[in-house]
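Observation: inputs received (chain + NAI).
Thought: call the complex predictor directly.
Action: predict_structure
Action Input:
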Amino acid sequence: PTRIKKICCIGAGYVGGPTSAVIASKNPNIQVTVVDYNIERIEAWKTDDLPIYEPGLLDVVQAARDGDSTKRTPNLFFSTDVDRCIAEAELILLSVNTPTKSLGRGAGHASELSYLESAVRKIGEVAETNKIIVEKSTVPCRAADTLRDVLAATAKPGLHFEILSNPEFLAEGTAIPNLLNPDRILIGSLKTPRGLEAAQALAAVYGAWVDPDRIITINLYSSELAKLAANALLAQRISSVNALSAMCESVGADIDEVSYAIGLDKRIGSRMLKASVGFGGSCFRKDILSLAYIAESLHLFEVADYWRSIVDINEYQKDRFTRRIVRCLYNSLSGKTLAVFGFAYKKNTGDTRETAAITVIDNVLTEGANVRIYDPLVKESQIRQELNSTTVRLNCAEKQLTVCESAYEACTGADAIIILTEWDEFSNRDEPMRRDSGHGRKTDERAERKLDWTRVAELMRRPMFVFDGRNIVDAAALEELGFRIECIGKA
Ligand code: NAI
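Observation:
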């Protein structure tokens, strides 16, 4: 079988960076180069202030990128010289973004494949040798056929390109443990001799650290669809629990108890059953919409409606949460101050794409509230940029918005706290502190900081409300301090 010596990963984002770092760290004999046209991102990957935050990432990057004085020579590189790196590699990982299309047919639903297409055109243009090309990005069914077609038209005659599907299942916030110990590695290929050989070559790269039982080789198109299906089912669990949470609030049940009871059933399992203000992140929404669009284009309209309803419930949940805030604050937010705790779409990431915070903040700004946001990781510029690009009304509401350096600053003079990200810092429960060795000292301190709720109570206006969009606080303990607590799925 082909032995891979050089890998080029196109796309230095949340998937390309961590995946390449782990592959390089586990395969000292393979040279891994991550390329991107985004110069700022590539330059940041060369420093210790990485462009993305993931617990444990910096250690893995440093080991492979900087080498180690005793035994390792560096084998992880970052570059903007896309052409050279493609030309040199035997295996190319495509980790470019595949967002929802914003223009033309399928806008708002279908996946935008233009980044993938342009990366593959580039491969066609510059390749002088055969390549194995790996779809790591999440793609619609049969995207491999599109890529093969582009290559057939652009590449030099006589070269062979084998396309594999190898979707990435890491979750942000736990990317490094997910990559180091994956539930499974899917490798989809054509069942031709060359297809199977390419699959074996990629399997050998993962074989450096993943148990062979967990490396699954399947049909190319099954592999593409399995990724969309996995995300749809994960999001479906969240929307199912969130739908139940609405019922809990009306019948006097407690969603945490209901989830616990359901999760004890081994057929169901206990994970991904936490009620919340709604899911965010760059993937769930886009992948479900893509799946529904594919179903629709196959004239499977009922199937499309089924998948779309998962997104509908998510929108409903965000709106429902805002309506509850307005109702509790005596039906007017005008002139009131709301402290927002957390802006990232979940804890342990700085990623804010599709975060539920955007919708909730947009809604309360519209109601005339003053909003003071604090997130332990996300920078002010990113918060403003995210709100400006998504929130039509923010331009008029600029004066209503303050981004704060601390939770205390955010809640000073506030009528209510809205918890939108489940950062450990905000919980008043006693959980074992996890040491975070991933991102330098500053983040270590951040990860260990715990809010002093007694001090918070001294800073707020009366009555003091807490709207816990993540069900992370111990409500009884806070009620003793004089807070009024509103949790998801609890009357
Ligand atoms: P990202 O937006 O963080 O990174 C993509 C990078 O690709 C960007 O830096 C962009 O500049 C670069 N790029 C785009 N076109 C390029 C080209 N032609 N040449 C060179 N560079 C190019 O995206 P992210 O989050 O890493 O996602 C990538 C793919 O992985 C998507 O398809 C996503 O659905 C999938 N995925 C994402 C996961 C996540 O947690 N973020 C998890 C699993 C899959």
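Thought: report the result.
Final Answer: The domain at 6-210 is CATH 3.40.50.720 (Rossmann fold). The pocket of NAI is lined by residues 10-16, 35-38, 41, 82, 95-98, 115, 118-119, 137-138, 168, 170, 172, 282-283 (CB under 6 Å).
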